[in-house]
Amino acid sequence: MKGHLRERSPGRWAIILDVGERDPKTGKKKRKWHSFSGGKREAQNECSRLISEITKGQYVEPTKQTVAQFLEEWLLFIKPSVAPKTHERYTEICRKGLTPLIGDVVLSKLRTDRIDAAFTTALTAPRVDHRKKKDGAPSKPLAPLSPRTVHHYRRVLVKALGQAVTWERLTRNPATATTPPKVERKKMLAYDVVQTASMLDALRPTRMFIPILLAVTCGLRRGEILALRWRHLDLGDNSRQMSIQESAEQTNDGVRYKEPKSGRARTVALSASTVAELKAHRARQAEEQLRLGIRPDADSFVVAQVDGQPLQPRSLTHEWVRVLGKTSLPRIRFHDLRHSHASHLLSAGVHPKIASERLGHSGIGITLDLYSHVMPGMQADAAEQVDVALQAAISSQRKAE
């Protein structure tokens, strides 16, 4: 296998590869032509790389398909195998994020350094806001993308180009060797028990009280709360528990119900006070719906609109922001109520394994990683308890002597 270079213009080269076969019509050797931009040494290295790929049988015939065209093909391919919400996120990242950055690059010519350069630009350069103000004036430039956003871009690109390798459009995945942006972990916000008690007292008169109660005393996720039906609850004096079997997810096509995040159902024990609140809520809800001519049953949603219709996840979030804004409490997300419950459990000395099962984590490692900030206090308490027991034993032994 031989190859040579031909300079077309300064910095632009033709890489000509003799593949060894002869055209049966002309008798001339078949050749493969590649265009390359860069220095002579770089062109020579590219020529050597192509020869190596052909020799090893790893050569992929270049096409004119761009990265943008490939991403659209990939999105169509994965649609039947991923959740609707996941596909929506991937579509937004591909069309609004990756395509503006590298969409015009020919797929077969996409290299790691080109991707790294695009991500560096996204992290450092102000973005153009194409929206215009009401007076018609152009908007101010937007801030560069955050490392977390670029991290998500990179993750999706690695996945997409992995499929290009499987389809033999690429010999290797150029995104895997890119430098991941450094993402700082978000500081987890949570209410302590005093703030939690204050919140429950302040928001008791609102329709948000029950979803708040389920989040902060049971650790339920937003989607799990909105998928909860009365048949999932056992409010008897001896059992007092509920089964988390579904989760509500909002997509562009509406709300769908799917398995919980961990992929399996779980049972969550209820405290006596939570059961009392749920019983009172069920009575109020039934009375409210009966006045509208609606007969509630076991399939009715625990958290619902006045007419019994399911509540949308986004609506719950908006209402949480609204009612919280009327209090003097620190502003946290609705999901942070779940974090608050986890912190309360661990601070009270509940074993992380029990907390993990209650929260529906797929493994105890996730619980320990997420709530490591609670652990130092637990370790200090444990050290004191061990020391008290040890000193008591030493004192007892000395008295015996």
Number of helices: 14
Count of domains = 4
Q: Sheet bearing the most strands, described?
A: 3 strands, antiparallel
Could you say which overall geometry the principal axes of the C-alpha atoms support?
Answer: elongated
CATH third-level topology of the largest domain: hpI Integrase, Chain A
Assembly type of the chains comes to: single chain
Summed up:
The chain is mainly alpha-helical and 401 residues long. 48% of the residues lie in helices and 12% in strands.
Write a structural description.
It is built from 14 helices and eight strands. With about 400 residues, the protein is mostly helical. It has four domains: about 1-55, no CATH class; about 65-130 and about 140-185, Orthogonal Bundle (DNA polymerase, domain 1); about 195-365, hpI Integrase, Chain A; about 370-400. The strands form three sheets. It has a three-stranded antiparallel sheet, with helices on one face. Strands 4-5-8 form a three-stranded antiparallel sheet. The chain is elongated, with a radius of gyration of 30 Å.
Please outline the helices and strands.
Elements: E1 2-9, E2 12-22, E3 29-37, H1 40-56, H2 67-78, H3 84-102, H4 112-124, H5 147-166, H6 193-203, H7 209-218, H8 222-227, E4 233-234, E5 241-244, E6 247-251, E7 254-258, E8 266-269, H9 272-291, H10 313-324, H11 335-347, H12 352-359, H13 364-370, H14 375-400
What distinguishing features does this structure have?
single chain; DNA polymerase, domain 1; 14 helices; hpI Integrase, Chain A; 8 strands; mainly alpha; 12% strand; 48% helix; 4 domains; 401 residues; elongated; three-stranded antiparallel beta sheet
